[in-house]
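Reopening: Acyltransferase still failing for me.
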Amino acid sequence: MNKKKLFFRYVLPMHGIQLLTAWMPNTDITTKIRGRLMRPFFKQCGSNFRIGSRVIINRPDLISISDDVYIAHQCYLNGTGGLKIERNVSVGPMCVIVTSKHVYENGAVSMDSKPDGVVIGKGSWLASHAVINAGVTVAEGTTVGANAVVTKNFEPHTIIGGVPARVIRTQEIAL
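Support: Ran it again with your exact input. Result attached.
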């Protein structure tokens, strides 16, 4: 899709909705209203999508969201490389999910980027200020601690945290 169509089909209407709903507090009702209004702009968006205020979303046309997903206020989601958020995921306030990497040329960062998709597995929780780097799959049932920077994949049902993130412990699974 060319940039002009992308701007008028996705970017402008989505930011218009965000502007119109910015005055609304972040309550259950208002996050559901905001989520319902923003659903059509994503590649795919399941039921019961809730989203807080002032979330920055790049390339929503490349972001797939499953059922029962909550994205808290002031997050940054970059869909450039493809972003898939599976069901029952909670993304805490001020989290960053990036799907592209900087390209280095002649020892310096260029204006180009290399897309690399991200998957947030079902039942995962990203605590506030977590950063998920491009190319990472957050496995099913993972808890990412506050302020963690996830640079690689981990096993399912683990609690990870730190900079860079490491395993804190494995979660017990109730059968």
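The first strand starts at residue 44 and ends at 45. If you still see a failure, please send the error message rather than a screenshot.
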